[in-house]
Amino acid sequence: IRAEVYWDEWNMAGWTNDSCTAFPALTCLAATWNPKMAALFGKSIGEEARYRNKNILLGPGVNIYRTPLNGRNFEYMGEDPYLASQMVVPYVKGVQSNGVAACVKHFALNNQEVNRGHVNVIVDDRALHEIYLPAFKAAVEQGGAWAIMGSYNRYKGQHCCHNQYLLKDILKGEWHFDGTVLSDWGGTHSTDEAAANGLDMEFGSLTNGLDSGASNAYNSYYLASAYLKGLKEGKYSMDDLNDKVRRILRLIFRTTMAKNRPYGSFASPEHLEAGRKIADEGIVLLKNDRQLLPLDAKTVKSILVVGENAVKRMTIGGGSSSLKVKQEISPLQGIRNRAGAGVKVDYLPGYASPLEAEQDVKGAVRPEQKAIDAVALREEAVKAARNYDRVIFIGGLNKSGGQDCEGTDRKGIGLSYEQDALIEALAKAQPNMAVMLVSGNAVSMPWVKQVPAIVQSWYIGSTAGEAIADILFGDVNPSGKLPFTFPVRLEDNAAKAMGEYPGDRENETYKESIWVGYRWAEKRNIKPLFAFGHGLSYTTFKLGAVKADKKVIGGDEDITLTVNVKNIGNRAGAEVVQLYINDVKSSLPRPAKELKGFQKIFLQPGESGDVTFNINKEMLHFYSDVENAWVVEPGDFKALVGTASDRIQFSVVFTYK
Q1: How far apart, in Å, are the Cα atoms of 271 and each of 77, 278, 467?
Q2: Mapping DSSP to helix (H, G, I), strand (E, B) and coil, where does residue 80 land?
Q3: Residues with active-site annotation
Q4: In whole angstroms, what is the distance from residue 483 CA to residue 262 CA?
Q5: If we measure between CA atoms, which residue out of 430, 422, 468, 438 comes closest to residue 300?
Q6: Do the Cβ atoms of 181 and 168 come closer than 8 Å?
Q7: Is 411 exposed, middle or buried (0-12, 13-18, 19+ CB in 10 A)?
Q8: Is the peptide bond before 108 cis (omega within 30 degrees of 0)?
Q9: Residues of the chain with pLDDT under 50
Q10: How far is CA 551 from CA 243, 548, 650, 657, in A?
């Protein structure tokens, strides 16, 4: 919940009691693959909003991860519509249990920051309905969301904040949404369209929310004086006006005027603990050769932490996600606290982003100075690395422009600031090295074979250092799974491979259609760096054969699948069992597999438990752009069960008739 700003500008108001809890970014939440964590997240952040008397929380974001270059991916829930749908529903319910509206965003097709204010997205109906709309639909129909925010871009030539097809035909028509539609700040461009096409509340027509120099600037908004004038002249429909008013009144009754509205709480120990728990479950162990992790403080007596992200604040920057926090424990501090007095923990930066370099010296920093400093920092770290039992490199991306940041996209998927060269040099100097990547996006790893252990962290908020230490020292067994594919190279991503992103400034065609993320990788037989759903553990799980209660269904019948999972290792931990469906033969091309179920199961050493999935008709359908409807075709299907999209261990064939 962001700091207070002045009513008529973006500058901080200077309050002393508005320092919040920073919860993990939504990529981390999605990586937990645990709807219980989504419920905890929603409830907790809703309590903070309620305490500060914020009637609408501008989130969660559920735009699909189409390209790893999107600067705002860290705010969303990954590449798969089913995963995002399952995670958004408990989040919305948790927020709204506090009498605070969840405003699900950005509706729709906001998948890049480049030219976001005007680019017209051209996408086929199958991709729209199968990939980009399901999470919004789930938030409305299952979560009961009270508010939706339109996106900046255009679709079918109309801006999405006043888009006839998206807002009136689909959202308020097909889905029967009874809540309020908000514009994003500056996302409104036409009184005529805003009046008729489903926008209920307009925000920020100009960047500062005002018409510069006018004392009554809000009258200049598209839905203010111009709208009133048109209404008086009979130009605009009174029915549309009444619909807007009813929706706004309904929002007021659901929030401010709700009789049993709780009081909420703010920056509490309980919220810090909730954030830490979500982070613990969301951090992903990508690689762990030689069981380098977890660290054992009894045998590891010296650790060198290298990398700017070990100390860099990640709760500031990034655009509108920037926060004023009550605390932010850095990874370095978390490691030092956990290691204790018996372990020597030293730090060297190894690299510096330009912003950090400018803060470290007086006056302007010339480009050649930065290059010299980078080499010096790298040499210093590599020379020192040989003298420690372990090296922990903590790098990745940050919240600066061109990294993970609203308003800009990345230029490529490589690490900036010469981090690749640093990692390779460190690995040669000290083979016992783990890489911890802090980011909200996939990055390339040319050094992946040289490094024994790799951990994907995210922007995980106030307790970042504590959660990272939990994982590195094994106090928590990692159980996160990737919510999006890590490609080996950018060209392995469909949006890049099809040669369209980021469009020609005016139009952006989604030529890859439904083939997003792992769907594309499997269609083209591309081996990813790390697959969707991938994530390792410090223990070992064994899946038993899948049992189905029937092999033929029809109508609204279900098939129940049962999978036994056993922890055959010596540590307590959790595994995420994943169910994918394959349509053996269909009239239209379909992906080799689509996620249709998942369940996280926690087991003690030697313990076993059953995971069950119910397969229903809806899990078999696809959107036919021939019939303009969802279709289930009779025939054979395969239920594929495993622990990642590329680790399918069992399959069951069944028939829908």
Answers
A1: 21, 11, 14
A2: coil
A3: 184
A4: 33
A5: 430
A6: no
A7: exposed
A8: yes
A9: 207-209, 356-372
A10: 49, 7, 15, 11
pLDDT of residue 487: 98
Using alpha carbons only, give the angle 631, 637, 643 rounded to the nearest 5 degrees. 115
Instruction: Tell how far CA 462 is from the center of its chain.
Output: 17
DSSP category for residue 3: P
* 164 closest CA partner among 151, 175, 155: 155
- pLDDT of 207: 45
pLDDT at residue 205 in the model: 61
- Nearest-5° angle of CA 7, CA 13, CA 16? 140
Closest CA to 314 of 65, 74, 45: 74
Q: Quote the Cα angle for 154-157-162, to 5°.
A: 60
CA 89 vs CA 7, 42, 84, 139, 320: distances in Å = 32, 10, 9, 5, 23
Give the pLDDT confidence score for residue 633 in this predicted structure. Answer: 97
Round to whole Å and give the CA distance between 29 and 87: 8
- Is residue 181 within a helix (H) or strand (E), and if so which, with residue range? strand 180-182
Token pair 């029809």: residue: 554
pLDDT of amino acid 217: 74
> What's the pLDDT score for residue 216?
61
The identity of residue 118, as a single letter, is H
DSSP H or E segment with residue 249: helix 238-254
pLDDT of residue 170: 98
Token pair for residue 336?
């030092």
Q: Is the N-terminal amide bond of 106 cis, ω within 30° of 0?
A: yes
Cα–Cα distance for residue pair 340/342, rounded to 1 Å: 6
Distance between CA 22 and CA 30 in Å, rounded? 16
Distance, in Å, from the CA atom of 218 to the CA atom of 203, rounded to the nearest integer, reads: 9
Tell me how far CA of residue 526 lies from CA of 482, 520, 521, in angstroms.
17, 8, 5
Q: Which two tokens stand for residue 232?
A: 């008086």
**Per-residue pLDDT, 363:** 36
Nearby residues of 351 by Cβ (< 8 Å), 6 or more positions away: 307, 308, 374, 377, 378, 395, 417, 418, 419, 422
Alpha helical stretches, state H, 283-418: 331-339, 354-360, 367-385
Q: pLDDT value at position 215? A: 58
- The C-alpha angle 525, 530, 533, rounded to 5 degrees, equals 95
In contact, 595 and 580? CB cutoff 8 Å:
yes
Residue type, 52: R
pLDDT at 645: 98
Distances (CA, A) of 42 to 72, 231, 364: 20, 39, 44
Q: Could you tell me if 24 and 30 are in contact, meaning their C-beta atoms sit under 8 angstroms apart?
A: no
Would you state the pLDDT for residue 148?
98
| Phi, then psi, of 609 in degrees rounded to 5 | -160, 160
Torsional class of 334: left (φ above 0), alpha (ψ -120 to 50), beta (otherwise): alpha
φ, ψ dihedrals at 106, nearest 5°: -105, 115
pLDDT digits (tens, 9 = 90+) for 577-623: 999 999 999 999 999 999 999 999 999 999 999 999 999 999 999 99
Q: Where are the alpha helices (DSSP H) in 97-153?
A: 125-127, 134-141
- 162-206 confidence digits (pLDDT tens): 999 999 999 999 999 999 999 999 899 999 999 999 999 999 865
